[in-house]
Amino acid sequence: MHFAKKFKQTLRETNSHLVVGLDTDVSKIPVFMKSSVNPIAEFNNLVIEATKEFACGYKLNIAFYERAIDSGFAAIRSSLAAIPENLITIADAKRGDIENTTELYAQAFLDELGFDSITVQPYMGQDSARPFLRRKNKFVWILALTSNYGANDFQFLQVGKQPLWEIVVEKAISWNEHKTGFVFGASHTKEISKMTKNLPEVPLLIPGIGAQKGSLEKTINALNHNLFVINQSRSIIYAAPKAENAEEFKAIVGEAAMKARDEINGFLMIKK
Amino acid sequence: MHFAKKFKQTLRETNSHLVVGLDTDVSKIPVFMKSSVNPIAEFNNLVIEATKEFACGYKLNIAFYERAIDSGFAAIRSSLAAIPENLITIADAKRGDIENTTELYAQAFLDELGFDSITVQPYMGQDSARPFLRRKNKFVWILALTSNYGANDFQFLQVGKQPLWEIVVEKAISWNEHKTGFVFGASHTKEISKMTKNLPEVPLLIPGIGAQKGSLEKTINALNHNLFVINQSRSIIYAAPKAENAEEFKAIVGEAAMKARDEINGFLMIKK
Fold this sequence. Notes:
The first copy, chain A, is of the alpha/beta class.
């Protein structure tokens, strides 16, 4: 199924805009899991079990899995196998290279591992997106306006009358408007408002809530369409650092996810 | 030793500006190696043995190793172990993320695997470089003007009087001028000339010769300093597709590397 169609269907079916970020740092895993053969895989499996009824999808930042070197890919595989088929999966890889090389990233993340979608760096231009876009049911999230302080270095540079991020959006849309969404940090409310007004059919992936301190209410109010997902990681997956067994862990982490989902929906409902 | 110092010393000691790109595609490995436990590792070891007296360093494009999924990191480890200590190593990862996440990439590539240096995407700003720059003897190669056709999408955008790539260079230099070099595709001779004139102490990593059709002579003539390395991959590592044993393979690949090194040095000597 075309990702855009799956995306809308999943948002509807799950009644959730919450993407749980599986940014799993082995040093933060509760003690009771540490003796596992693959602690990251074990941790993720429990998080997925606890949160799958509250999330519309999962985002794995690949850096955490590369840091695990030899056990990283095994953990990715097992996590993806545990995620229900109808939920969306995002490889937060922020990849980008010349076309022949990007093709290999597409083979690894989209074909072999089977992620639905992937985050992409725009700097090298269309080569960095095209191989991903060639896959029938896959999707790219191009970095537009990111949540970190370094966003101020280049993303707001004025090119004629427009800031760079806007030119990135317009150009990327021209590569394939049906298979492209964008990453906007939650605190960029003015730009999110403008973006979602001008491009009502283009999905947004929004990080930067929670530990990164964006205001959820202001972000929700800025959105002019509902094709968005909000990523939260640390406030959910690390909600139970002292849990002593799987049941306790899942109860606490599940509740954190439920609250996060409800908080987003609550602000959506009271929007004027 | 500070990378900048090692860099100059290695260029001098090896009398070579050739970096061999270990962009190893398992489908292009000669038949006699395919039954090896880790064909990519085997292939790389033979290439390194054959070329180490002609190269100043090696660049591994990480996409090729991610494509190998489970055996990729083992191949990286074994390749790095085979590369002589005095030669420079480059993780062509083109990574970049928020600071805490980039720190994990630094731990993986620079600390754990032990690469000297890494290529970096500039779009997210200084967060994408700082963790790498914090490591004492390490170095970053920031993408400035790349060799692919997509370079035309954003890198030449006019920001006031300057193109975007120039702003990227100026800004990145301000983060740490002693530990930062830049990637310039070989065909961008006008910009290479300007860059190396204005910043005579800043190293360049130059891909895009060989299969990507840059002109080596024009590129060499454009350079106004000698702190550069030229990456060549396919024309060297795939020079012996029909080799039937290790000795034959190494003889052919070694000769291709020697010729590449000599060609660069030849053009350097006859420069006016």
